[in-house]
Specification:
This protein is an alpha/beta fold. Helices cover about 35% and strands about 25% of the residues. It has 10 helices and 14 strands. An 8-stranded mixed beta sheet has the order 13-12-11-7-10-9-8-14. The radius of gyration is 20 Å and the shape is globular. The mean pLDDT is about 95. Bound molecules: nicotinamide-adenine-dinucleotide. The site of nicotinamide-adenine-dinucleotide has 24 residues, from helix 1.
Length: about 350
Amino acid sequence: MLRIGIAGFGFMGRMHFRQWKAIKGVKVVAICDANPNIKEDTKRAVGNIKGADGDIDFTSIEVYHDLEQMLDKAKLDAISLTLPTYLHATCSEQALSRGVNVLCEKPMALTTVDCDRMIKAAHKSGKVLQIGHCVRFWPGYDKTKEIVDSGKYGKVIAGMFQRLGSAPGWAADNWFADEARSGGVALDLHIHDTDYVQYLFGMPKAVSSHGGKGPKGQLIHIVTEYEYGDDKVVVAEGGWAMAPTFGFEMSFNLILEKASIIFDITRNPVFRVCPREGEVFTPPVPAGDGYSLEIEHFVKTIRGESVPPILTLEQSRDSVRIVEAEKKSINSRERILIK
Ligand SMILES: NC(=O)c1ccc[n+]([C@@H]2O[C@H](COP(=O)([O-])OP(=O)(O)OC[C@H]3O[C@@H](n4cnc5c(N)ncnc54)[C@H](O)[C@@H]3O)[C@@H](O)[C@H]2O)c1
């Protein structure tokens, strides 16, 4: 039985908790949250994707308010690190140095310098560090990667990726609004698509980004073109500027020489391959979602089972690197080469 702890029991902590509960041979034995009223506060709805809410039975779960204490006392095999982003690097180091495997939410960290610290700590510990780039695992996104790689429908002509919602309002101290703690909309939200673009096509040669600003001058909407030195057009758009009544959307359209692929999980749930020849169809996808599938991958890796090469720490770091270039492009109004 793997003993699991969850560090940070807000939206993602509770989302991971429900996924852990569905996996055999593991048990969440401890949670840690700085909020002294965390048990009571889990009755409050959180997040922009279904799956985190619902009553939680704390009967056999130790509750800590300090990560060091949980790591010292709870005899953990692994943690979900679902703390605000500015804590990812230091807290990963703390857990790894005690021999605890870490599934750390995306983005890996605020800067590539911090990402490198985490990679070093993982190598030194010999333990597993995996970053929660759930979109690589998400049913539909995963199959699309398979289809592109197979070459069955020819080369990619264009890809348009979208992720839109209103500003996250569920965090008690609104840390998301503080760019120094969250990295803002580009690093927190849009990185999902930056990372997926990297997963599909590798590192871009250059990025050109444009930003929409909020009332305090903060970035709230981003559109990026990723250049690959060939003819394909790859664009991703991410934003926190939608009215709350809009809800949340993650979607894409991918145009290949011999088919178009459409995906939208939220407003009009659809996953469809539209070939130039033959019938429109929805390919079979695994049960679950990006969260459950990334956790299964993490558990298999800890157990030494073979897993497909879905993501590496260096790629997770490189997604932060691309976002850094995107922000630089917005601020300088220039195209930024990625070396
Ligand atoms: N993969 C996804 O789809 C997805 C979605 C949302 C958020 N995220 C990421 O997950 C992470 C957490 O986001 P969230 O939405 O769960 O935030 P949240 O604010 O809902 O939860 C964070 C929790 O950490 C606790 N906390 C803060 N500082 C602490 C400390 N020093 N020690 C212990 N507990 C502390 C807070 O009390 C809170 O309960 C972020 O990195 C975010 O980018 C990922």
